[in-house]
Amino acid sequence: MGKLSMTMKLGSSVILLLLAASVFASDDVNTSKKPNFLIFLVDDLGMGDVGCFGNDTIRTPNIDRIASEGVKLTHNMVPAPTCTPSRAAFLTGRYPIRAGLASKLSGTMFGCNACIGGMPPYEITFAEVLKEVGYKTGYLGKWHLGIHSSYEDYAYLPNNQGFDYYYGMPFTNINECADPPNGRNSVRSLMRAGGGLYYLASITAVLYSFCYVSKWFGIVSSRGFVISLLMATLLSYLLYMYPESGNRFLCILMKNHEVVEQPIRLENMTVRFTNQATSFIRENKEKPFLLMMAYVKVHTALFTSKQFAGVSRHGQYGDNVEEMDWSVGKILDALDQNGLKDNTFVYFTSDHGGHIEEVAVEKGREGEREGGWNGIYKGGKSQVWEGGVRVPTVARYPPSIPSNTVISVPTSTMDILPTIAKIAGAKEPDDRIIDGREMTELLFGKDKMAVHDHFFIYCGPWIHGVTFRPDKGGIVYKVIFTTPKWTQGTQACFHTWLCQCSGHFVDHHDPPLVFDLTNDPGEHRPLQLTEETKALIEKARAARDEHEKTVVPVTDQFSLFRAVLFRPWLQPCCNFPYCSCQEDDAHALHSS
Mind telling me the catalytic residues? Predict the structure, then answer.
């Protein structure tokens, strides 16, 4: 009996030990679960628009919360200060010229939803990197990287770039999307102001004159003349109708490959995106996920839900920033409610600096600022100056990023791909050049050294500036080769609405301008030309030349043929020929 009792006790002990081991093993599995990733990208948000970056009148408590619970990156840069190139670089970790998104033409965006330009499918996004290791991926909001290619429908949409779920605007938010056009000039408002019938008559007169001249010189026969008149009549009608119906073609909402609203209704769009984000988090809380929330705010046309109209001290623009911050808070709350805060890497940034040229023209609001404020930094969107390329960025990851810390050395939005790959235990692409640098040691407070030797600032295919920190001294320098010509008395290009990259729109500096960004971040005092300054210029030139040797020519995605030429058969339409629909549950959505 004694032996049996002893055996039973031993058996019980073994069982208890095994149970304890299984519990500890279970805990190990939980703590080693792959982290989630929540990425916020705002459109046109300036460095001076956010509380933790110096704004004390626009309320951004939720963005500030990320900074206080994590890290603030005060010198985070984009490689190109306009939407599409910057977004492509962010997703791929590569300079946009490598994807053909750096044209010599003045445009740096796609002109229609029925064009064939876009970010090539051969580019690898951080979503594709994470899918390789089992992540569920979602993309919400503004895309602006194309829809169709010349050989495949929907080839450029997020679903073909690594995202399992997509809900958003494939184009961008423009003034045509608002009705009325929100106090800003648009083709539609200009046509209405000038008289629609006068506009129609002018177009028709020009086209008819061309037909008559062709007949007079014998270019067309009598029969051809009649056909040309009929075609001219049809063309003039289409040109007349396009400004009135342009929002129907440009301003659409898609869910994966389906058009669910046409034209889009902006007022509660941020609420809809927020609800989509919280639903995605709730539905995927048991598996590792990546969610990218790419706001169509704070780009014009400005819009808010009723709860945020008139709440800020800075007009419609301030209202937009505060509603965007509200959305950030709701999505962060969803992490808390689902027990995911401590296992989610959160990253918040902007695609470039604030758009200085955006001002109201509406009677009673003439000159009111509708674009972002860049704080102490010179210039803005589309410019090589710091106001164009330095973006407000904060990050949070409780297990590893110390709270309330600041990183002041240069970093880049391109760094997010290799950094995400490192944290997730995934492999970054090794069959191409990745220009971003993995920065976990920097974020986690284990290293204070900059991860970039040199950082190149592109405008189109040209490098307008180089930012770098020499090995010794700790000072960050910036060498500027080319700057835009401003409208006199401003830091903007009101004569072209957006600063251009070449020709008579720019000044080339010889010798280049050199700034000490550590002690003069506002770029007020170029350094005197000394032997030391000359050495810095030569260092920047040598780095630029070496970098340009690595750039392989690829198809120009911004060519007129690809980015502007409208192809009617590719136009997304929810119910041809009307192309008019509303999302079923859109009226039921509201903020709280």
Answer: 83, 144
